[in-house]
Write a structure and sequence with these properties.
The model has no long low-confidence stretch (mean pLDDT 94). The chain has helices at residues 4-34, 37-63, 83-110, 114-144, 149-155. The protein is elongated, with a radius of gyration of 17 Å. The chain is an all-alpha fold. Bound molecules: MU-OXO-diiron. The site of MU-OXO-diiron has 7 residues, from helix 1, helix 2 and helix 3.
Length: 163
């Protein structure tokens, strides 16, 4: 059985994962509209992944005797200044999510809820991978500069499936 505090923080995380899915969906739509099909495909896939994260939280909460609440979702930005800025925003968002996951780890230790501590470790590893993946894309963009965006857009299509 989850404590009230644990239930609340896990439900907050459901909302964060849904928002992440919406944010990446918005980035995918924006990139598609700009003609960047590779970038768009990357963000569509990322949006799906975030939805899967959300479902993991929903199922875990319910499995442990809580009630996962489906939240209202804020509207994410619809426009982005550029490809690099979109990935910078994605990295900032992932860092925020990593912090939220760490808060769950901390609470699980404080409450001696070792089942949740064990379960949340998957997300600890996932966040490290996601931050690393977005940072890798930003490093690549830095190397290419503006002239290489077309090549980058094709290249990024093969970058899925490595995580
Ligand atoms: Fe599910 Fe990328 O946070």
């Amino acid at each position: 059985m989850l404590s009230k505090k644990m239930l609340n923080i896990l439900n907050d995380q459901v909302a964060k994962e849904v928002y992440a899915s919406h944010l990446y969906l918005s980035m995918a739509s924006w990139a598609e509209d700009q003609g960047f099909d590779g970038v768009s495909a990357w963000f569509y896939a990322q949006s799906e992944e975030e939805r899967e994260h959300m479902l993991k939280f929903v199922r875990y909460i319910n499995e442990r005797g809580g009630h996962a609440v489906v939240p209202r979702v804020d509207q994410p930005p619809a426009e982005f200044p550029g490809i690099k800025e979109a990935f910078e925003a994605a990295l900032e968002h992932e860092k925020m999510v990593s912090g939220a996951i760490n808060d769950i780890v901390e609470l699980s230790l404080k409450e001696k809820d070792y089942a949740t501590n064990n379960w949340i470790q998957w997300f600890v590893a996932e966040q490290r991978e996601e931050e690393d993946s977005v940072q890798g894309i930003l490093d690549k963009l830095e190397l290419l500069g503006k002239q290489g965006l077309y090549v980058f857009d094709r290249d990024i299509m093969s970058m899925r499936g490595q995580d």
